[in-house]
Amino acid sequence: MVIGCVDRDGPRLMLNQFCCERGIPLIDAASDTAPAESGALFGGRVCVCTEATGCLVCFGVLDQNEIQEDLATPGQRADREELYGVPKSALAGGGPSVISVNGVIASLAVTELMVLLTGLRKPIAYQDWHGHAGTLCRVTDREMGCYYCGLRPKRGDLDE
Ligand SMILES: [Zn+2]
Prior knowledge:
alpha+beta
C-alpha cells in the first residue's frame, strides 16, 4: 500500500501509474488554500485508489497544466518561462500556514488506511473537505474506461 503526500500533480500522476501497474492500493492526500473575497478558501481531499474504486485520473482530480509544468525538461521549463514569464507564486517568499488543514486531511487519510487494513468498512473512494465552509463531501463522480485503471494487473497476474 502507498500513501501519497506529495505537493504537486506531476509526481501524483507518476505515483498513480506506478500503483496501477503493480495493483498496489494508493491513498492520496492533498490540501490547498486560495485567496477569496471572504478571506480564504481552504480544505483538501483524500482519494483511495484501488481496483474497486478507481484512480486519480478517473476521479478527475489532477491538474493537466501542473503536470506539464512538473514533468517538463529543464529546457522546456526555460522555454515556457521565456514565453509566459515566471509565475508570481514562484517568487513568493513563503506559503500560507496550513498545519491545521493538513492535520484534518492526514487524519482522513489514516482513517481510510485503517479501514482498508482492518476491513472495518469499505474505503470511501473520494472525500472532499471544504474547511472554509465546514463541509465534508463524498464525491462519487468517476470517468469510466480510464487508461490508468486499465494498467492494473489481472488477478491471476498478481498470484504469480
Ligand atoms: Zn482510473
